[in-house]
Amino acid sequence: MLCIRELPYSWDSDFLPALQIAQSEGVHITLYYSDSNDEIRPHDELLDLVDDRKVIDAEFLHSIRRE
Q1: What is the pLDDT of residues 4-21, one digit of tens each?
Q2: Counting Cβ atoms within 10 Å, is residue 16 exposed (0-12), middle (13-18) or buried (19+)?
Q3: Higher pLDDT among residues 8 and 66, named by residue
Q4: How crowded is the C-beta side of 18, counted as CA atoms within 13 Å?
Q5: Phi, psi (5° rounding) for residue 31?
Q6: Residues forming a β-bridge with 32
Q7: CA 62 to CA 67: how far, in whole Å?
Q8: Phi, psi of 49, rounded to the nearest 5 degrees
Q9: What is the dihedral of CA 46, 50, 56, 59, to 10 degrees?
């Protein structure tokens, strides 16, 4: 699993070229993100590029919680 942790004030569209190269090499990309407000929502181009999207919400957090 590859995780890219975005630094504050970094634009997510900066990752597009690297993700496009990874995809061209056969890497499946899943984007985990919050859409709770527009200020932290990923760029539309990034949402379109990735293979799979997972919204981090209360239901998702409950599903991965350890008992």
Answers
A1: 554 444 567 788 898 899
A2: middle
A3: 66
A4: 7
A5: -105, 120
A6: 54
A7: 10
A8: -75, -40
A9: 140
Q: What are the tokens at 10?
A: 């970094």
Beta strands in the chain (DSSP E): 30-33, 52-55
CB 57 within 8 A of CB 63: no
- What tokens were used for 43? 């760029």
Determine the residue type at 47: L
What residues have CB less than 8 Å from 33, skipping those under 6 apart?
Answer: 41, 42, 53, 54, 55, 56
